[in-house]
């Protein structure tokens, strides 16, 4: 593998082990989470996503001379909620600082952030990796303001002829979560980010939609030989816009760095951008140091002094978080760990499951339908699981479908079709079944007639069955289902088929 890690080697790297053999990756994440406040952090402008460019701005978020910031109280509360959920110490005294740098999306030429006295520090988040629990340290969680958004003439900054600036996002409140370099593989980094996203959703502090930029992740990665304690030179990877891209970008960068080091080269400390189209990272600029930002205390915002009573009130308001909910659902409904993990990924999905399970009393059956059909229907319609929170009637639709299937009135396949139609139309499953004539045929005489018709029409399959090939019975049952247009009860059909043909390998009399 060449030191430059050419594009043609990308596919090989993505198919190989996540970290090059003979190397250990050291990974730390810097995660930006936009807070779901209605107004910006230092002014009253709306934070609504998708407004026409530069329509949600004012002198404060545009950085015009003479304008003064006023801190958003709800943003402080959300930051404290996040810090507590991540087991951080909440600082009784925190202050804001100016982070100075020049970039077109920063109208003031500085960002109001927090430097040496952040709001939250020294926490952790546990994540399940390969059946074991990994505790990843959280260095800090601090408040800061968003920058504007650069809109490039092409899909990425590379190759763009020009860039436009939309300042609607400028001043949206966010928290930056900085982890310890405790992650060791790209997969661990993705799983950590998935867990963190779920925690933020459960807290209600952010919608964490990566496609809208409300959750963004920069990843720092270096390599070292197994057993070494010294850290290698790191690179920072930016422009990662999906959970899948986090793993892919880090995997590529690990192989690129290994190729350079094994060729006798040196890693340059730099910021690199992830190019989704090519599956490669590309150099952007040399990595800044703390000194480059010339931090100094923000003179227009007084320090924060939070008393213990305030922090305790926020602590008492925290909901049950994903890890605790997974454990409870596994115990309460005897769910496998995988089912609990999928269902608890989103609070609305978990709430939907619990409502349906409490009505049906069979948690595993409900989880099968939720993980299979409910998520499939949502995906096909482009909806997120959050939509379930506003559709309580869908719980009743699912339970009614389960009742119809359990009673043998419709098959499971028909039930899936009915559930989808009921979700889309709002009509009750019972009504759909009656209107479309979907109820299963249970009349044994009619079923027997279809069975004999299928046997007569498929002598080769019958011969195979009588020769001992039991799977041929499945084909014959399928033919009966076609004849009945899906209305035959497959269990009864199978019994009648065995009665007519005998056991596999039995010659006809």
Automatic annotation (TrEMBL):
Transmembrane segments: none
InterPro entries per UniProt: Asn/Gln-tRNA_amidoTrfase_suB/E, Asn/Gln-tRNA_Trfase_suB/E_cat, Asn/Gln_amidotransferase, Asn/Gln_tRNA_amidoTrase-B-like, GatB, GatB_Yqey_C_2, Gln-tRNA_amidoTrfase_suB_CS, Gln_synth/guanido_kin_cat_dom
Domain of life: Bacteria
Keyword Protease among record annotations: no
EC id: 6.3.5.-
Keywords noted in UniProt: ATP-binding, Ligase, Nucleotide-binding, Protein biosynthesis
Keyword Protein biosynthesis part of the UniProt annotation: yes
Swiss-Prot/TrEMBL catalytic activity: L-aspartyl-tRNA(Asn) + L-glutamine + ATP + H2O = L-asparaginyl-tRNA(Asn) + L-glutamate + ADP + phosphate + 2 H(+); L-glutamyl-tRNA(Gln) + L-glutamine + ATP + H2O = L-glutaminyl-tRNA(Gln) + L-glutamate + ADP + phosphate + H(+)
EC primary class: ligase
Pfam family, one: GatB_Yqey
Domain Asn/Gln amidotransferase: 351-501
Assembly with partners or alone: Heterotrimer of A, B and C subunits.
Family named by the database record: Belongs to the GatB/GatE family. GatB subfamily.
Record function comment: Allows the formation of correctly charged Asn-tRNA(Asn) or Gln-tRNA(Gln) through the transamidation of misacylated Asp-tRNA(Asn) or Glu-tRNA(Gln) in organisms which lack either or both of asparaginyl-tRNA or glutaminyl-tRNA synthetases. The reaction takes place in the presence of glutamine and ATP through an activated phospho-Asp-tRNA(Asn) or phospho-Glu-tRNA(Gln).
Identification of the protein by name: Aspartyl/glutamyl-tRNA(Asn/Gln) amidotransferase subunit B
Organism of origin: Carboxydichorda subterranea
């Amino acid at each position: 593998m060449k030191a430059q890690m050419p594009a043609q080697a990308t596919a090989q790297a993505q198919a190989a082990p996540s970290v090059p053999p003979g190397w250990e990756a050291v990974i730390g994440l810097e995660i930006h989470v936009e807070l779901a406040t209605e107004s910006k952090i230092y002014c009253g402008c709306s934070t609504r996503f998708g407004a026409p460019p530069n329509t949600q701005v004012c002198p404060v978020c545009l950085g015009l001379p003479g304008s003064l910031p006023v801190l958003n109280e709800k943003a402080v509360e959300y930051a404290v909620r996040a810090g507590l959920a991540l087991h951080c110490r909440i600082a009784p005294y925190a202050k804001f600082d100016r982070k100075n740098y020049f970039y077109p999306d920063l109208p003031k030429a500085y960002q109001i952030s927090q430097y040496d006295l952040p709001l939250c520090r020294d926490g952790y988040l546990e994540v399940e990796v390969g059946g074991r629990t990994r505790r990843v340290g959280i260095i800090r969680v601090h408040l800061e303001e968003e920058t504007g958004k650069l809109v490039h003439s092409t899909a990425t900054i590379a190759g763009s002829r020009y860039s436009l600036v939309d300042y609607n996002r400028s001043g949206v409140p966010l928290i930056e979560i900085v982890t310890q370099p405790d992650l060791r593989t790209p997969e661990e980094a993705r799983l950590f980010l998935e867990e963190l996203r779920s925690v933020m959703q459960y807290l209600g502090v952010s919608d964490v939609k990566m496609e809208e930029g409300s959750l963004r992740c920069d990843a720092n990665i270096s390599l070292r030989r197994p057993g070494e304690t010294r850290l290698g030179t790191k690179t920072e990877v930016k422009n990662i816009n999906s959970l899948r891209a986090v793993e892919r970008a880090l995997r590529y960068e690990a192989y690129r760095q290994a190729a350079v080091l094994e060729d006798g080269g040196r890693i340059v400390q730099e910021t690199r951008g992830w190019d989704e189209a090519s599956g490669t990272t590309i150099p952007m600029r040399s990595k800044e140091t703390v000194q480059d930002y010339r931090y100094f205390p923000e003179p227009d915002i007084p320090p924060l002094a939070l008393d213990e009573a305030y922090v305790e009130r926020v602590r008492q308001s925290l909901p049950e978080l994903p890890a605790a909910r997974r454990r409870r659902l596994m115990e309460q409904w005897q769910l496998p760990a995988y089912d609990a993990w999928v269902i608890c990924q989103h609070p609305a999905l978990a709430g939907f499951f619990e409502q349906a399970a409490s009505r049906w009393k069979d948690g595993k059956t409900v989880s099968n339908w939720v993980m299979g059909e409910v998520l499939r229907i949502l995906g096909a319609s482009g909806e997120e699981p959050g939509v379930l929170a506003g559709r309580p009637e869908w719980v009743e639709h699912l339970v009614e479908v389960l009742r119809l299937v359990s009673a043998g009135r419709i098959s499971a396949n028909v039930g899936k079709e009915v559930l989808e139609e009921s979700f889309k139309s709002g009509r009750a499953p019972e009504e759909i079944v009656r209107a479309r004539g979907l109820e299963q045929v249970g009349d044994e005489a009619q079923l027997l007639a279809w069975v004999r018709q299928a046997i007569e029409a498929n002598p080769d399959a019958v011969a195979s069955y009588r020769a001992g090939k039991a799977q041929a019975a499945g084909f014959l049952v399928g033919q009966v289902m076609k004849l009945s247009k899906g209305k035959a009860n497959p269990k009864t059909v199978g019994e009648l088929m065995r009665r007519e043909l005998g056991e596999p390998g039995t010659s006809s009399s």
